[in-house]
């Protein structure tokens, strides 16, 4: 199957959109492949040409969102100046805004292997910790505390903005965190 074929891409998009629409109505564990087939108006063999099961479908969607976050976070952590950070973050906020329904739906999936919100939290915490460990001489305990605060603040702000369509607020949240980071002498000056 040629993944670049327009029909293949349209079918995958149809399956994904049908699944996301079901997530707004039902808990992930109650959604069946048959529900997805009925919503997408496709047959079982078509679904299985693209995904092994609903878990692989959910993981694929979560990985796509997570990849966007990873790039944005790594670029953001390289910025020392507020203006630079805002320039990096604004396009990421737009992507989040465009995908808000999808992200909110995926945040609600919690299985042994699928947990987007927790994965994002851990990535934010570890990335901040590693970046600051290289550039500052603070105690490990303080750095651990600050990295958890960073992850909590970013994800709390993100989730609030997704639910309330408040992306302009994210700029103010970013400025607040950068001010707090300066108070603790993070990042390097």
Question: Describe it for me?
Answer:
The chain contains 9 helices and no strands. The protein is elongated. It has 189 residues and is mainly α. The termini are far apart. The mean pLDDT is 86. Helix content is 76%, strand content 0%.
In terms of topology, how is this protein built?
Elements: H1 6-23, H2 33-40, H3 44-50, H4 54-77, H5 82-98, H6 100-107, H7 116-135, H8 140-164, H9 167-183
Helix pairs in contact: 1-2, 4-5, 4-7, 5-9, 7-8, 8-9
> H/E element string?
HHHHHHHHH
What is the beta-strand fraction?
Answer: under 5%
In total, how many beta strands? Answer: 0
* Low-pLDDT sequence parts: none
Derived structural class: mainly alpha
From the N-terminal CA to the C-terminal CA, the straight-line distance is: 52 Å
Mean pLDDT: 86
Q: Based on Cα principal axes, name the global outline.
A: elongated
Number of helices: 9
Please bin the fraction of helical residues: over 70%
Summarize the structure.
It contains nine helices and no strands. Helices cover 76% and strands 0% of the residues.
Keywords:
189 residues; mainly alpha; 9 helices; single chain; elongated
